[in-house]
Write a structure and sequence with these properties.
The complex is a heterodimer of chains A (121) and B (351). Chain A has 121 residues and is mainly alpha-helical. The radius of gyration of chain A is 15 Å and the shape is elongated. Chain A has one domain. Chain A has helices at 3-13, 18-24, 29-45, 59-74, 78-92, 96-119. Chain B is an alpha/beta fold and 351 residues long. Chain B has 2 domains: 5-109, Rossmann fold (3-Layer(aba) Sandwich); 142-350, Orthogonal Bundle (Hypothetical protein af1432). Helices cover 58% and strands 8% of the residues of chain B. Chain B contains 15 helices and 5 strands. Chain B has helices spanning 14-24, 36-45, 63-72, 90-98, 111-160, 166-185, 193-203, 215-218, 226-233, 235-244, 252-264, 285-299, 311-319, 328-336, 338-350; strands at 5-10, 28-33, 49-55, 81-85, 103-106. Chain B has a 5-stranded parallel beta sheet, sandwiched between helices. Chain B is elongated and about 90 Å long.
Chain lengths: 121, 351
């Protein structure tokens, strides 16, 4: 079993729907791997600080979380996608406190997924 | 090598662009833009884009702004635009549809469905654009055929009365200048460019009825007798009879203008013209304009019965009513474009 399969299996353990993700890329598993690398870069380049949730109109934060939601959804990084879907919805409803709680909950899972992908680079 | 159709993917998130690119790259050439501004530049530079996949939420010029600009430029008529969105803002999607978006792609993408939907629409637009191109080509061909027909008819009469075909060309260019001026100056005579173009072409046929005028009258060097003048006047009605026999080979609008101009280009504002003795605005504005152009050209040309008058003299004679009374508004327009008319007339005669 190669490194690549190891990555997929590990991600599966973390709740990532890798089968669906590969399927989204027309069955191209190696492209999926590359895209996961791009995904970690996006996550690192779009850091979200917990303090950002202490916002009034939260426009910028909505943009950031919306982008992460879209990218994670397209790669079937399901736990991250589900969490950011909820966060975006809560922010749009003007509930930053609840959104913050959801963010705090996903943060360790998100970190674990990113570390896993980076380990297999 | 087969020329692939092009798809432009507009999304600020690289992952989304790559996924879409992967889905379509086998069948299409992929162009990518990371923001709306760049997308518009690419759409402007490349006329062969077959579809645009447009993300709605982008930091630098969002999807709706891009769509609005494409709509303004008329691009959404020929290029299908698909909105990409993860958001469920009904308001935005509705506005997107109103601005000409053809469909909405929801994130996360489902490759196979997406491929089918977009390919179907691209094919449909391709067929529609091709059909429109064929129709345009045929309209153009028909228009050229009309022009050839009109010019052929006009040339027949030009050869008979000793002119070389230049008279009708001068009439049409003077008609164009004066008609544009009248249309510009007076709301009640305002006409779109396409209609003015038809009037200009129709003006060529104003004297087609002269084919029925006997040579000895048409080319008589001296003044016509009363009887001869009566026969000469018949060319207006005879022209209509000729046109009446060929309506099916002329486009409807062109036929109507030609018929009216043929019959009424010798009517006068005060009702003292012929053949119907119409007066005022009972005479169509196009027939009035051709009347002035015809008189000006006749005055500034050599005829078998007279020498050409100078431009200044001709203008003075028209203004003084020596060639009949014209609509004061047409006279004002004539005055306003007199220099243009003089320049055009001079250039026409230098050729």
């Amino acid at each position: 079993m190669g490194i690549f399969m190891g990555l997929l299996e590990e991600l599966k353990e973390l709740g990532v729907n890798t089968d669906e993700g590969v399927q989204r890329l027309m069955g191209n598993a190696s492209l999926y791997e590359r895209m996961l690398g791009t995904f970690t870069k996006l996550m690192n380049d779009t850091p979200i600080e917990i303090e950002e949730f202490d916002c009034d109109d939260c426009g910028e934060l909505i943009e950031k979380t919306h982008a992460l939601k879209g990218a994670s959804g397209n790669l079937s990084v399901t736990p991250v996608y589900d969490a950011y879907t909820e966060i975006v919805n809560l922010l749009r409803q003007g509930k930053p406190v609840e959104a913050k709680a959801a963010f705090e909950k996903i943060l360790p899972v998100q970190k674990e997924i990113i570390q896993c992908i980076e380990r297999h680079k | 090598m087969e020329n692939k159709k092009k798809i432009l993917i507009v999304d600020d998130i690289e992952i989304n662009r790559v996924i879409l690119s992967e889905i379509f790259k086998e069948d299409y050439e992929i162009l990518e833009a990371p923001d709306g501004r760049r997308a518009l530049e690419m759409i402007g530079e490349d006329q062969n884009i077959s579809a645009v996949l447009l993300d709605l939420l982008m930091p630098e010029m969002n999807g709706l702004e891009v769509l609005r600009e494409m709509n303004r430029q008329g691009k959404t008529e020929t290029v299908p635009v698909f909105l990409i969105t993860a958001a469920d803002s009904q308001q935005m999607l509705l506005e997107g549809y109103h601005l000409g978006a053809v469909d909405v792609i929801r994130k996360p993408f489902l490759a196979h469905f997406l491929k089918c939907r977009i390919s179907n629409v691209i094919e449909l637009y391709g067929h529609r654009n091709e059909l429109e191109r064929i129709v345009e080509e045929q309209v153009e061909r028909l228009s050229n055929l009309n022009r050839s027909l009109v010019e052929t008819l006009a040339t027949v009469i030009e050869f008979r009365d000793g002119e070389s075909g230049e008279h009708v060309k001068r009439i049409s260019s003077l008609t164009k200048i004066l008609m544009q001026q009248v249309s510009k100056m007076y709301q009640e005579y305002r006409l779109p460019k396409e209609e003015i173009d038809k009037i200009v072409m129709s003006s060529i046929l104003h004297d087609v009825g002269k084919v029925s005028t006997p040579d000895q009258i048409l080319n008589k060097p001296g003044k016509l007798t009363k009887e001869e003048f009566e026969i000469m006047k018949q060319h207006t009605v005879k022209g209509c009879e000729i046109l009446h026999k060929i309506p099916h080979i002329m486009e409807k609008g062109l036929y109507d203008y030609s018929y009216d101009i043929c019959r009424h280009h010798h009517e006068r504002w005060d009702g003292r013209g012929y053949p119907d003795g119409l007066s005022g605005d009972d005479i169509s504005i196009w027939a009035q304009v051709v009347s002035v152009a015809d008189v000006y050209d006749a005055l500034t040309s050599d005829r078998v019965y007279k020498k050409a008058f100078s431009h200044e003299k001709a203008v003075q004679m028209i203004k003084d009513g020596e060639c009949g009374t014209f609509n004061p508004k047409v006279m004002e327009a004539f005055d306003a474009c007199i220099d243009k008319i003089e320049r055009k007339n001079r250039r026409n005669r230098e050729k």
